[in-house]
Amino acid sequence: MKSKFFKIGVVGLGYVGLPLACELSDKYITFGFDVNKKRIEQLKVGFDVNSEITKKEIIKPKLFLTDIIQELKDCNIYIIAVPTPIYKNKHPNLTMLKKACNLVGKYLRPNDIVIFESTVYPGTTEEFCIPILENSSNLLCKTNHKSSNNTFGCGYSPERVNPGDKNKKITNIMKITSGHDKTTSRIVDELYKSVIKAGTFNVETIKIAEAAKIIENTQRDINIALINEFSKVLNKMGINSNDVLNAAKTKWNFLDFQPGLVGGHCIGVDPYYLAYKAKKLGISPNLILEGRNINEQMYKYIAIRFKKGVEKKGIKFKDCRIIIFGFTFKENCKDVRNTGVLNLFNQLKKMGARPEIYDPFAEISSDKIYQKIKFIQDLKSNYYDGGILAVKHNCFLNKGKLEDIKNCLKSKNFIFDLKNFFPKEYVDDQL
Fold first, then answer.
1. pLDDT < 50 stretches in the chain
2. Domain formed by 216-296, architecture
3. What is the C-alpha separation between 96 and 318, in angstroms, rounded?
4. Residue 144: what pLDDT?
5. CA 134 → CA 8, 95, 114, 151, 345, distances in Å?
6. Which of 75, 101, 154, 266 is catalytic?
7. Fewer Cβ in 10 A, N or C end of the chain?
8. Does domain 3-204 have CATH number 3.30.70.1560?
């Protein structure tokens, strides 16, 4: 298959699929599919609710957006970029991946190629996805030893998007590529290389590509857990962790991680995929799970430390009004799914306080878990007993914004800075 004949269908138009479809459509006829009809209607007029992609980037002559899967039937390359969350028991939830495979499989023709971008544990593409595609299409997946007019190709290229980061666009981040057979691997690599300015890194097998993705986020999770634990120790010793980290960063090989809440769809989820697979293999993933446990329990530590700080200032904690600045799972990103701030809010409420959320950047869904949270649109003057700076949005940063923050607090107040928004002398405590 030559690149000039590529006709691409991207399945799933979230933070991963949409920017990819927009970039591919600069060179190839590209169809973007999503089951969310409202999402498609918004995108057709150039509106991305996530504020990641501009109207100019969406409205293009070679990009066709649809919620009707049949409109992708003439594509010869399908890229599946659907979410892979976890269940309440922390096991992988591959429901959306299974549905996507069934949808695409119905329209697969000989020599078509299916590429997966969803994050999974090593072996998922070949052991879970390919059998579904084969069953739905009545075709076989190509291997290095079997290729015929009755086969399709399969590849894997893990997503590396960074929501909220306007400097690290999809084209500026090197892409890992792979294929189930050598021919498909070469074609997958050529496809991404044609749009990714940073280049590609082609690996020998799909399992290597899957493992590379999942270890990236697991490594980050464990490193943040280490710093979170370190922060607790330093606090007991009366030492500011930010001062220590700034000093340590002067060494060339020190890894720059900050303490705090860990949420989102990657760091807060991917380690469980790796742990699940490890257990299946009879390996106890103790370090992976302990890192997850430390990070998942940070909200309790923060709530207790905040309570102590409030009471030390002579403020009664029960019924004290708290304003939390920021609710999204990371800075400068509208997405609130899997945010660590949710647990912090609920914990403060459980402990008897009256917390509220202020985040002009957040896109709050109608999900039940958000219905009992008090979100405010405007800050009241001289109203709150305490403030927590939780998410480091650009809109909160600078000394002028600090004055706005302080104006909404009573004269006797306590400010806890979780993300080092401001110099330590401007706040009461830092994580």
1. none
2. Orthogonal Bundle (1.10)
3. 43
4. 79
5. 20, 17, 11, 9, 46
6. 266
7. N
8. no
